[in-house]
Specification:
- There is one protein chain.
- The chain is an alpha+beta fold.
- The chain contains 4 helices and 3 strands.
- A 3-stranded mixed β-sheet has the order 1-2-3.
Amino acid sequence: MDVTVRELKARLSDCLRRVRAGEEVVVTLRGRRVARIVAEPEFAATEDDDAEIVARLDELPWVNAPEAAGRPSGATDPIRVPEGERLSSELLERE
């Protein structure tokens, strides 16, 4: 994945998530490659990490897993998110 310095500043969390997943991020400045970001081996994500996160979320009493259709049971009228506010999933991704 190639990103400009400006894009890297704006999307650092996303870029680091991709690096952790094994992708290489190449940083460009005025069209020239200036840096490569790669994961350190001990910080590379594993499937165990994902399983652990899901297990920890399942333990929380206020978290309900969606039904097979992908929509939580009982959700008949979805809540609209006001412009400028973040979803809890976006906040969790940042962490």
